[in-house]
């Protein structure tokens, strides 16, 4: 719906929701997931106490919305059209995807630190992360299947297992970057991951 066609009440509602999300992001980053309370978020957003519960049932719900906003950026990377004609083209596309995926982890490090903490303590957030993971894996399965059907990738390998292995390898480095634990340059990580993947699946 166009913003200009919204009623005054609908515009206020959108603005309130936006204020709550902005405030929750700031409080989550400052306090971490466990120490954050709805009261802190409401105070930061300068909204009425009951108003917050009109839009979000709890802080887990707020974080999931923020997490989905970030993951939509990741999806834009993962769901780029993948129709290479040669193995060289496939490698170039895959390497660019990995680089963009891990670069995004650096860009969104602060919020993803909160997400990782929440995955360990919130069933709702953990379930949402598992759903996000499966969406990525499903997309990778599509890309592998395309490559197998077009004679670029080995057909003797199970596309579902290959996709799962590939995502988990990338996810491991994503969390290392989020924790500031990576010992190697982003370029080295991307190069090594891509070479191993291509060497195994596209050999």
Blueprint (SSEs and pairs):
Blueprint: H1 8-31, H2 38-45, H3 49-55, H4 59-78, H5 87-107, H6 109-119, H7 123-149, H8 159-178, H9 186-201
Helix pairs in contact: 1-2, 1-4, 4-5, 4-6, 4-7, 5-8, 5-9, 7-8, 8-9
Q: Would you mind describing this structure in some detail?
A:
There is one protein chain. By secondary structure, the protein is an all-alpha fold. The protein folds into two domains: 54 residues, Arc Repressor Mutant, subunit A (Orthogonal Bundle), CATH 1.10.10; 142 residues, Tetracycline Repressor, domain 2, CATH 1.10.357. Helix content is 76%, strand content 0%. The protein has nine helices and no strands. It is elongated and about 60 Å long. The chain starts with 7 loop residues before the first helix and ends with a helix. The model has no long low-confidence stretch (mean pLDDT 92).
Tags for this model:
elongated, single chain, Arc Repressor Mutant, subunit A, 2 domains, mainly alpha, about 75% helix, Tetracycline Repressor, domain 2, 9 helices, about 200 residues
């Amino acid at each position: 719906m166009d913003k200009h066609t919204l009623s005054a009440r609908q515009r206020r509602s959108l603005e309130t929701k936006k204020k709550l999300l902005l405030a929750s992001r700031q409080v989550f980053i400052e306090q971490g997931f466990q120490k954050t309370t709805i009261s802190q978020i409401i105070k930061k957003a300068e909204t009425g106490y009951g108003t917050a519960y009109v839009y979000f049932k709890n802080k887990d719900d707020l974080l999931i919305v923020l997490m989905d906003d970030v993951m939509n950026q990741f999806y834009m990377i993962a769901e780029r059209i993948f129709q290479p004609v040669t193995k060289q083209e496939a490698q170039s596309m895959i390497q660019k995807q990995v680089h963009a995926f891990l670069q995004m982890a650096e860009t969104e490090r602060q919020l993803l630190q909160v997400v990782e903490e929440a995955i360990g303590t919130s069933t709702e957030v953990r379930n949402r992360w598992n759903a996000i993971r499966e969406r990525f894996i499903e997309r990778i399965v599509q890309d592998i299947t395309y490559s197998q059907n077009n004679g670029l990738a080995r057909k003797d390998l199970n596309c579902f297992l290959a996709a799962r292995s590939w995502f988990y390898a990338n996810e491991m480095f994503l969390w290392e970057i989020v924790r500031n634990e990576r010992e190697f340059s982003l370029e080295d990580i991307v190069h090594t991951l891509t070479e191993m993947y291509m060497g195994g699946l596209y050999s």
